[in-house]
Amino acid sequence: MHIGEVAARTELSLRSLRHWDDVGLLRPSGRTDGGFRLYTEADVDKILLIRRMKPLGFTLDEMSAALRDIETIQRPDPDTSTVQARERLARLLSEAKQRREALAKRLDMADEFIDLLSSQRLA
């Protein structure tokens, strides 16, 4: 599928998808003869994973490493690299949980602020 369809399906901008390609985070699986990016369903799954990591503040390098580790553990022929990838992903999971907890606390504070303003006579 073309980049516009992928952008619509993932609710991301064309600019983000192009940037991720430019920096090597996620390259499309192919290109047309005219050079247009072509994505597969597997690419879309990776894009959605990246999109889910973004609100937690992971860097492009951390996202790239996570993608590589996930690909490693999904291989049909596990080896020692699979064990290491699982260990790194377990640490990433722990970090993601901590970041989500911090994000939830920030949202609670935002809700309190909204409630405070809502209770004021503003008109």
What is the straight-line distance between the termini?
A: 51 Å
| Number of continuous helical runs | 5
Main sheet strand line-up: 1-2
Number of strands: 2
Question: What is the CATH T-level topology of one domain?
Answer: Multidrug-efflux Transporter Regulator, Chain: A, Domain 2
Helix content: 55-70%
How much strand content do the residues show? under 5%
Quick one: overall form?
Answer: flat
Q: Name the poorly predicted regions.
A: none
Description:
This protein has 123 residues and is mostly helical. Strand 1 and strand 2 form a beta hairpin. Helix 4 crosses helix 5 (80-119). It has a domain at 1-56: Orthogonal Bundle (Multidrug-efflux Transporter Regulator, Chain: A, Domain 2), CATH 1.10.1660. Helices cover 68% and strands 3% of the residues.
Tell me the layout of helices and strands.
Layout: H1 3-10, H2 14-22, E1 30-31, E2 37-38, H3 41-53, H4 60-73, H5 80-119
Antiparallel strand pairs: 1-2
State the gist of this model:
With about 120 residues, the chain is mainly alpha-helical. About 70% of the residues lie in helices and about 5% in strands. It has a two-stranded antiparallel ribbon with strand order 1-2.
Any descriptors?
123 residues, mainly alpha, Multidrug-efflux Transporter Regulator, Chain: A, Domain 2, two-stranded antiparallel sheet, 5 helices
